[in-house]
Design goal:
284 residues, alpha+beta, Ribosomal Protein S5, domain 2, Alpha-Beta Plaits, 2 domains, 10-stranded mixed β-sheet, 9 helices
């Protein structure tokens, strides 16, 4: 076992675009989306302890059955035990920085970082593919964090094609509203018939198909997008509520952040094609 304590950033993600191309008989949506990572996120702390117990610090207002860190840790522990592999006790705590229900993948990133880090501490007996199989049961976005590479995702988000996208600085703004992904995807007014991307998808027009509906349902999201648009092209990530705009350098993004209305929260971060968690853990 890795006997050292580890503090790992569970990075935010952005959906640079999100097209919904259909709805399956089981209710899941077919989509095409481009994921990239940010060098900003929650920080998870993993501290070895004697014995074999996993102790996950409670998150305020979140029951264990809804805590993706706890569920990921228990799922991996069960896999190791079923295979007769040795496990070791670990205390897991979190410094929460990413908003819940914000569309930046906080819970999914926390779950993936938990799976990756514990697997590393316990000897790396499971492959990325095996970890992703555990992760998809926790959330559709978990696998992209497991593989840790900017990716074009298709299907219900599980078909990942690694890509490199231009890196830049982003201002991300949370308008302080919580949006239910399930409520967006079940709404009758959601666009579900976008054309599939052409072969040279980089040159095609891109958008977020959830954005018009969310703007209609949540006026604060529309206000945020309009405010950002004064400084740079703005877009919503995922099903919201976070909105973002790209800038050429850190100072330009910071200058706009300083003008942010008091009722919203925001942060500036650089995009990364490789997840900061993978870099910290020395994963290929």
């Amino acid at each position: 076992m890795n006997a050292d304590s580890l503090s790992i950033i569970a990075p935010a993600k952005l959906n640079l675009f999100l097209h919904i191309t259909g709805r399956r008989a089981d209710g899941y949506h077919e989509l095409e989306t481009l994921f990239t990572f940010l060098d900003f996120g929650d920080t998870l702390h993993f501290t070895p302890r004697t014995g074999e117990h996993l102790v996950v610090a409670a998150m305020e207002g979140v029951a264990n059955e809804d805590n993706l860190i706890y569920r990921a840790a228990m799922a991996l522990q069960q896999q190791y035990l079923c295979r007769g592999l040795p496990i070791y006790g670990v205390d897991i705590a979190i410094d929460k920085r990413l908003p819940m229900g914000g569309g930046v993948g906080g819970g999914s990133s926390d779950a993936a970082t938990t799976l990756l880090t514990l697997n590393k501490m316990w000897g790396e007996h499971l492959t990325f593919a095996e970890l992703a199989e555990l992760g998809i049961k926790l959330g559709a976005d978990v696998p992209v964090f497991i593989y840790g590479q900017s990716a074009l995702a298709r299907g219900i988000g599980e078909q990942l094609q690694a890509v490199n996208v231009p890196q830049c600085w982003y201002l991300v703004v949370h308008p302080q509203v919580h949006i239910s992904t399930a409520a967006v995807f079940t709404h009758p007014d959601l666009t579900r018939d976008s054309a599939k991307l052409p072969e040279h998808w980089q040159d095609a027009p891109h958008r977020n198909d959830c954005e018009p509906l969310v703007k209609k349902l949540y006026s604060e999201v529309e206000k945020t997008l309009d405010w950002l648009l004064k400084y740079a092209p703005s877009r919503m990530t995922g099903t919201g509520a976070c909105c973002f705009a790209a800038f050429e350098n850190e100072q330009a993004a910071q200058d706009v952040l300083e003008k942010l209305p008091n009722q919203w929260q925001g942060f500036v971060a650089k995009s990364r094609n490789k997840s900061p968690a993978h870099t910290a853990l020395g994963l290929a």
